[in-house]
Model the fold of this input.
Amino acid sequence: MNKFFNTDTLLASGQDALQLITEEYHNMESKQVVPDVKPGFLRHLLPEEAPEKAQTMKEIIADTRRFIIPNLTQWQHPNFFAYFPSNMSHGAIVGDMISLAFNTPGFTWVASPASTELENIVVDWIVKFLGLPEGWLIKNRGGGTISNTIGDAIFLSVHAAKHKKMAELSIDFTDVRMLKFVGYYSGICHSQNYKGLYIKDIPYRREIPIYYNEQVQNYQIKVDEFEKMVEKDISEGLIPFWCGTTLGSTSLGCNDPIAEVAAVCKKHGIFLNVDAAWAGAALVVPEIREEIGKGLEGVDSMAINFGKWNMCGNNSAVFFVADKLNYRESLLGGPTPEFLKNKFTNEYDIIDYKDWQIGLGRRFNSLRFWYMIRSLGVEGMRENVTQKIELAKVFENHVKKNSRFEMICKRELALVCWRLVKDKDGNPIPEDKINDVNKKLLDNINATNQYHLVGSVVQNLHFLRFVICNHNTTAEHVEKFWNLIEEISNKLFD
Done:
């Protein structure tokens, strides 16, 4: 018997593991959403030293059931309303299991032909069913890849933009003009935009101010202010080269005016990236695509996190570029070692995904996508989006019907941003106390450990976010949660 890989053990313990998973999902609603533990709890439960002798898989699975799963924050719980979805589907779980079993690090085509070509196919499928620009198909000038996270994708976008601008100016890293590069990002964008510029040593990092746009009933950047910032920097001898915008921001679910920003970027030679981590999934619905998906043909790169609304699990950020030649050149990083060369690259003009990322090895993530998409179909993915939007409307209606609460902005897809504005007698909460009251409301909700919610702050306004995250959440769950909110909000003023 091979102690390192035994198929009998794999089969038996695999069945036990699947049994564990299914039981935990079936019993999910009976669990606390957030465990009642303190930092360091696990060190007190597990041995300080690794076991000298092998332990049975049954023992390990039993300890998983006993120590690990009860102490997770249950992102798949129907009462989890925080952040954004971190959904899984049965297809993605099975696909990932098979992917992990064969552990094929497809850094070149010949290292794993099926994983490379399946990724080509899957990203092209996504372009088509999300209605993205046709130029992003692999056969055309652009193309896509499965990155690890949105943060990775943003960093790579900045990197590709820097390479492109350096080529345009015919400069290298020793040129003093490297210290004059300017990157911009929407004031409502994710923090990874700033981080990407910071890690890439961009000396000038500009946040574009946001304002409340009555017409769209949410926050946006003012495009004319953005252009004034660019023109001012140019007049002072600086070099604008990259801009990060958002489609479905984390805080408010809002959308920057992509088409107008793209026009400014094109005029001034600025590389434009769109972070559509959450809302990108909704483009599968034609009506939503028509509403928020305009102007994408003018962007240089875009990232969508299929680990959120798209049910593929973590490490599932799909990153598209409009110019794959520039993108690939930016990541070549010197001569190719002999052991990484293969004749197929040049003879067949194929993709070696090592040239689309920082590292060499990569997971066979496309198999997880392939299983998820095939097991649900585009129709199923569309239904997943619309179902969660309809549930968010239930919560939205409660907020609007109760005069003690107000919407911060309009509901964006399945996200509702709201706050408490009156005490239990219907008197307005003073402006100097309203933020603290809403923070206390949030803390008291989360202190139950039966629900999980997060708040956010925009222009010194503290509010709460409610987002439908899970497949098993029903209107009944939403109703019970709203009843709890009303109960807690009354007790705040006792």
